[in-house]
């Protein structure tokens, strides 16, 4: 039988073995660890959820990886890219590449009887992945571009619909400043709202065949290709693989392909998101510090409460190592109990927020209407293991007091 574990179990189960102060400090230590764990679980869930939501919104407008024609021109009037210049077959074989879609863009001006608004027509074809706009559709339906002729159906944002006083079923006249000057009338079939005003105020989704004609491009010429991926965590490796497959070719007219991932093209947004990791780290550090202080205090009180027991066990021949194990087991029970309740509370609050959106946010600042939650099971398990190990190290600090306890002195004054 493990004598140390047996004694620790008796101390845990039998309240009569502990003084009133020791019982209270055990509860305080357990509650402190539980609160700290709950806060850490919430912090991880919020940070992961926030980064995931913003990333999905940004990649909904601009794919994780873009292939365009290399040009010094920084305006929206970019040179066309021929489809046969892009080795689509080779790119589709790259691990983590989900799909590849062509797109076109054209700057224009929407004018109604009362308002005027500059926009960007993003042209897509029948292969376009509509999952992002489907999840953010608030009125109407998605456009259908599967017909043999160019469709006049478009998808506009709620913010533009409000500014221009348009609704589903209305026609929107768009003017294009070029030679010759042109105007196109489109039918609004749907309204989306991604909460990203920077993008919502710009983009109208249209049939790319219209933008090809407006740009005077051939049927096999596009602004570029969007590459969707399965795992965003492997973006850098996948982007480099795309560069290796297509980025170094020089075409007869001296052109090359420009391959850029979204972390490079929208570095300001992703740098901002990376700051959230720092905020989470500060919260985790503070919570661990608070739990550690209460844990050390609790163990010291337990040791002082059981000084007579320690002296007797020493007198009976129990080694210092065995005595330490008694209190390590006892402290571990307190930590595990605190972790258990902390996880229950943290996950319960996370699920409550996830399914109710109880805590709201200012959309203009955070791009979201409520605090986002994404429960990362692997991250939470890692957090629990790391917390237990760190607190286990802090446990050893007060246990050094056992060395100072003299059996003869203790028994003499008892």
UniProtKB/TrEMBL annotation:
Residues 28-215 form the MacB-like periplasmic core domain. The chain crosses the membrane at residues 28-50, 280-304, 325-353, 373-402. It is a multi-pass membrane protein. Keywords: Cell membrane, Lipoprotein, Membrane, Transmembrane, Transmembrane helix. The keyword rRNA-binding does not apply. Its main location: membrane. Residues 282-407 form the ABC3 transporter permease C-terminal domain. It is found in: Cell membrane. Pfam families: FtsX, MacB_PCD. One of its GO terms (cellular component) is plasma membrane protein complex. One of its GO terms (biological process) is lipoprotein localization to outer membrane. InterPro entries: ABC3_permease_C, Lipoprotein-release_system, MacB_PCD. Belongs to the ABC-4 integral membrane protein family. LolC/E subfamily. PANTHER family: LIPOPROTEIN-RELEASING SYSTEM TRANSMEMBRANE PROTEIN LOLE. This is Lipoprotein-releasing system permease protein. It comes from Acetobacteroides hydrogenigenes.
């Amino acid at each position: 039988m493990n004598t140390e574990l047996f004694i620790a179990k008796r101390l845990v189960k039998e309240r009569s073995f502990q003084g009133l102060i020791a019982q209270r400090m055990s509860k305080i230590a357990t509650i402190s660890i539980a609160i700290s764990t709950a806060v850490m679980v919430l912090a991880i869930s919020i940070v992961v959820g926030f980064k995931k939501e913003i990333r999905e919104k940004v990649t909904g407008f601009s794919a994780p990886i873009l292939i365009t024609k290399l040009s010094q021109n920084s305006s929206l009037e970019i040179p066309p890219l021929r489809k046969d210049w892009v080795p689509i077959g080779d790119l589709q074989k790259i691990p983590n590449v989900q799909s590849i879609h062509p797109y076109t863009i054209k700057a224009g001006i929407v004018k109604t009887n009362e308002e005027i608004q500059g926009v960007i027509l993003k042209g897509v074809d029948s292969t376009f992945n509509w999952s992002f706009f489907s999840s953010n559709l608030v009125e109407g339906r998605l456009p259908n571009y599967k017909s043999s002729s160019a469709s006049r159906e478009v998808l506009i944002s709620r913010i533009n619909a409000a500014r221009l006083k348009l609704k589903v079923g209305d026609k929107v006249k768009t003017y294009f400043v070029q030679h010759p000057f042109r105007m196109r009338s489109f039918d609004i079939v749907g309204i989306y709202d991604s909460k990203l005003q920077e993008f919502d105020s710009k983009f109208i989704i249209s049939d790319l065949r219209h933008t090809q004609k407006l740009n005077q491009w051939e049927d096999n010429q596009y602004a570029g290709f969007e590459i969707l991926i399965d795992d965003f965590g492997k973006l850098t490796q996948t982007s480099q693989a795309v560069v290796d497959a297509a980025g170094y070719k020089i075409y007869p007219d001296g052109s090359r392909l420009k391959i850029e991932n979204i972390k490079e093209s929208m570095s300001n947004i992703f740098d901002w998101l990376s700051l959230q990791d720092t905020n989470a780290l500060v919260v985790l550090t503070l919570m661990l510090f608070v739990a550690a202080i209460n844990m050390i205090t609790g163990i010291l009180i337990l040791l002082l409460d059981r000084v007579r027991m320690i002296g007797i066990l020493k007198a009976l021949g129990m080694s210092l190592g065995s005595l330490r194990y008694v209190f390590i087991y006892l402290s571990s029970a307190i930590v595990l109990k605190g972790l258990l309740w902390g996880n229950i509370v943290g996950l319960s609050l996370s699920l409550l927020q996830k399914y109710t959106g109880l805590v709201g946010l200012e959309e203009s600042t955070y791009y979201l209407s409520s605090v986002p939650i994404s429960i990362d099971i692997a991250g939470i398990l890692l957090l629990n293991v790391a917390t237990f190990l760190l607190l286990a190290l802090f446990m050893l600090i007060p246990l050094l007091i056992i060395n100072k306890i003299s059996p003869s002195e203790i028994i003499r004054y008892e």
